[in-house]
Amino acid sequence: MWLGPVIPGIIIAKKKNRSVHWMWLAVWPGLGLWVVIIMSILKPLKVCSVCGKKVDQEAKVCPYCTTPYERIGKPEEKPKIEKSNAMTKLILLITILVVIGTILGIALLFFVNSIFTNSEPYKHTINLIRDNPELKEYLGENFDRKGMISGSISTNGDSSGKAVMSFKLKSENGISRVYVDAYKENGIWNYNKIIVYKKPGEPEAVNLLGE
């Protein structure tokens, strides 16, 4: 999803006679957006009609083949309204890119969160919480997860994997914190720790592994 800025970046680069190869930097998450912003700020280049080299917009003579050609657009001669319009377009472009980047970032967060919620360790933990008499009495029937899940989860095919996660539960008695540490071996999830702290920062907890 972080490759979204590549297309507008290529369009801007071509319009300004800049190299589109700068957009290869977009393979690093988030860097493509900054390349597009910088590309929008850079001045356009012009192409020599003889040698085809790209040179500064204000050049009078091609530095590569010494072919003279007419100077294009002195900055001091440009009407103020043209400069104002250019700045407005730049601000609008940056705003659009920031909004797109924000949307992609939020979408990525929800995608990662869905990986956790659809995992076997998370579903198993929620079932244990619902079946535990002490937690059922403390949390009530209408508890729900609060906020995003933090941690990491990885699998190697169907045979092995590891999951470490923590998340909050909101209930009628406030906020509780859940910690899970699990590993997958021979296709089966095993659990080192599933603990529910009734209140964050306090020692009272329920060990759902029964140890």
Helix-strand blueprint:
Blueprint: H1 6-15, H2 31-41, E1 45-47, E2 54-56, H3 80-117, H4 120-131, H5 133-139, E3 144-156, E4 160-171, E5 174-185, E6 188-197, E7 205-207
Antiparallel strand pairs: 1-2, 3-4, 4-5, 5-6, 6-7
The chain-level mean pLDDT equals: 79
Order of strands, main sheet, comes to 3-4-5-6-7
Task: Specify the number of helices.
Answer: 5
The share of residues in extended strands comes to 25-35%
Q: pLDDT under 50 segments (min length 5)?
A: 71-78
Q: Profile the largest sheet.
A: 5 strands, antiparallel
Radius of gyration, CA atoms, in whole angstroms? 28 Å
Q: Strand tally, please?
A: 7
Helix/strand class = alpha+beta
Q: Alpha-carbon distance between the termini? A: 43 Å
Overall geometry: elongated
State the share of residues found in helices, binned by percent: 25-40%
Which sequence of SSEs, written as H and E, runs from N to C?
HHEEHHHEEEEE
